[in-house]
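Quick one, tokens below:
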């Protein structure tokens, strides 16, 4: 009877791609992949270690499987991913019930790690980060019609609050030919939407080709027959060029959507974050984006309570958010991460203040979102069907303005007609609830 292997992948979509590559190797080796990891013999927890809440989620998840192991329901636990890479022996010490703790440079060896733990060996290995493969076959874990295309690994931006460069290493682009090949295979297998990801997608190609090559990559991806949507996440403001915007405006397959994490608008705070720019430069950039790509959906991410953030600086950020009216926004209270420069900065704010400021921003965004969603009522928009909601007895999906997992949903009735995941339908919007829209198929 074949050994059953299950995996839980936490954190971002970039980590999910790593998980999919490991799953392919495991399946190719003859092991049986189990969707419900609690029913497996061997459980791999592919962890996130980015901020405190993510670390806690990873530890809680691992201990859930420790309990199952103690009950004899699973045999082995392997810990991989960013938490394992970042804390290494500390993870093994904290969780002695684990059978293996391996760094991201050992992902390629996941099959041999399984074999070794099944022989009773306890494995702790942390190879060179650059051994993490930039490309390779995957077992797709997203819905069949969309997939993530990771175009680079690591990061050189070195923002003062971020541990990613120390966890993931230097920025490394995937050669363009390999990306095109990977994308063509996924589209051949039914993918209609490609979501472009990296720690900094806009930096793509600089290390390999000596210049920013995201516009050229996007142009080539648009030539793939059968591909309908291409979506851009993780765009660094400094590298949003006229050339990139021109390609977005010109190519119909590129959805008019950009994820542009700005983190703050105050120039002094941005400087402390080791980021460039200020409120004036950000306003000018956003105005240019909206001018060059009419109707674009802009998503951003903000941090409140950065060390030394005054009431005046926070007020400026709140006013900026109110004025700009981002279409999508996430705001997080500053997390002082071990080993980052920001951890040692003076004037650290208390948790209550940091979270209160984040809550204020999100309350403002809800008002903006309500206004924007109300403007959509009565309009018909194209929606990709994702599934059926048994409680609401209706279908749900996303528009071009919504990225999976991070943005809202569109719930719609279908007059008794069966819809299947991946089918594109026209939905007339009739109502809204919080961040979600409600509608009916417009025949």
């Amino acid at each position: 009877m074949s050994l059953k292997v299950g995996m839980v992948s936490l954190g971002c979509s970039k980590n999910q791609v790593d998980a999919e590559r490991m799953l392919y190797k495991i399946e190719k080796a003859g092991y049986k992949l189990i969707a419900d990891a609690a029913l497996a013999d061997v459980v791999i927890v592919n962890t996130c270690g980015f901020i405190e809440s993510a670390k806690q989620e990873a530890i809680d998840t691992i201990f859930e499987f420790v309990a199952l192991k103690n009950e004899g329901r699973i045999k082995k636990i392997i810990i991989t991913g960013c938490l394992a890479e970042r804390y290494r022996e500390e993870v093994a010490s904290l969780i002695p019930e684990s059978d293996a703790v391996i760094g991201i440079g050992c992902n390629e060896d996941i099959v041999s790690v399984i074999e070794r733990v099944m022989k009773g060996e306890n494995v702790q290995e942390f190879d060179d980060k650059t051994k993490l493969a930039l490309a390779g076959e995957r077992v797709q874990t997203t819905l069949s019609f969309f997939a993530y295309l990771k175009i680079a690994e690591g990061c050189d931006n070195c923002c003062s609050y971020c541990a990613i460069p120390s966890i993931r290493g230097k920025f490394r682009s995937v050669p363009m030919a390999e990306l095109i090949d990977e994308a063509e295979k996924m589209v051949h297998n039914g993918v209609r939407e490609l979501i472009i990801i990296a720690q900094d997608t806009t930096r793509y190609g600089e290390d390999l080709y000596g210049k920013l090559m995201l516009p050229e990559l996007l142009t080539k991806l648009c030539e793939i027959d059968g591909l309908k949507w291409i979506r851009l996440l993780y765009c660094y403001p400094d590298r949003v060029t006229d050339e990139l915007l021109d390609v977005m405006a010109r190519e119909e397959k590129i959805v008019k959507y950009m994820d542009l994490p700005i983190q703050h608008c105050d120039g002094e705070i941005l400087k402390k974050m080791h980021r460039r720019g200020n409120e004036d430069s950000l306003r000018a950039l956003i105005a240019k984006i909206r001018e060059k790509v009419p109707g674009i959906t802009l998503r951003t991410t903000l941090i409140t309570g950065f060390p030394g953030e005054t009431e005046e600086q926070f007020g400026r950020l709140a006013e900026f958010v109110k004025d700009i009216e981002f279409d999508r926004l996430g705001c997080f209270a500053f997390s002082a991460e071990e080993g980052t420069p920001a951890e040692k900065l003076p004037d650290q704010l208390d948790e209550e203040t940091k979270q209160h400021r984040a809550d204020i921003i999100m309350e403002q965004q809800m008002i903006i979102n309500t206004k924007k969603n109300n403007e959509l009522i009565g309009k018909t928009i194209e929606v990709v069907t994702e599934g059926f909601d048994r409680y609401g007895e209706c279908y749900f999906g996303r528009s071009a303005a919504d990225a999976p997992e991070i943005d809202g949903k569109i719930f719609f009735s279908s007059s008794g007609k069966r819809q299947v995941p991946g089918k594109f339908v026209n939905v007339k919007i009739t109502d809204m609830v919080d961040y979600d829209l409600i509608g009916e198929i417009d025949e």
